[in-house]
Amino acid sequence: MKRYAIFGQPVAQSQSPRIHAAFARQTGIALEYTAIESSPADFPKVLERFVAGGGAGGNVTMPLKETAFALCATLGERARRAGAVNTLTWNDGQWHGDNTDGAGLVRDLTGRHGLDLRDRRVLLLGAGGAARGVAPALLDAGVAQMYVVNRTPEKADALVDMLGLPRRVHSRYWEQLGELGEFELVVNTTSAGRGNNGNHALKLPFSITTSRTAAVDLNYGEAAIPFLAWARAAGCRDIVDGLGMLVEQAAEAFKLWHGVRPDTDPVYAELRGRHAALATAD
Length: 282
Prior knowledge:
Oligomer: single chain
Strand order of the largest sheet: 2-1-3-5-6-4
Largest sheet: 6 strands, mixed
Number of domains: 2
Distance between the termini: 38 Å
CATH superfamily of the largest domain: NAD(P)-binding Rossmann-like Domain
CATH topology of the largest domain: Rossmann fold
């Protein structure tokens, strides 16, 4: 039986093992999928031990996506464009890296939520591995303009430079948010809702939204609560968390590993129901 895993820090609460177990049952493919905690510094040795134990591939979440990129001997086009890797495949004694985040996000927004992304003015909050993964796909989906804002301005500048579209993609300081006008799509890729950082998301100005704005958080569960609460208070028309994207990007990775794309709708429905039940219990 081949071994797969989700790598990150923290990663204990990840839904990826549950998702891939459901995909495996659905397709009749035998696999083992676990969650493995690692810091960026320890990641190379963690991967070595994983391969020695029969590891065949893995998904990568915060804060390891850019580290994973550097560890790969070969890269798919999506990973090259993103400068970040969220899907690893052990192939001929070396790691191959891909990035399914952007495809997963666009599929969730356009397919499940019926959003037309074309010609939208987009605000991308954050410039780390998650932002790098989704930015190229949003541009390919036809957004008109993208503004990247990050608390470390140099990272925003680096992402904009990497995308190489100076007429469509721009970097700004976090302090300038109130001066940027209105956006039809606001995408939060930061971890501001995790740990003790939740207040950051609440400080976003309402002036960046309209009654037509779609607000999207790549986080899900408790980590998404602060941003989604801000979006409701701001009167955004569409408010989406990252659970659907999580399922869709996982399906893309599953297809890369096993050659078949599972049906995501029943898995998403199960997870959404489970999260609703947990929220009610709380």
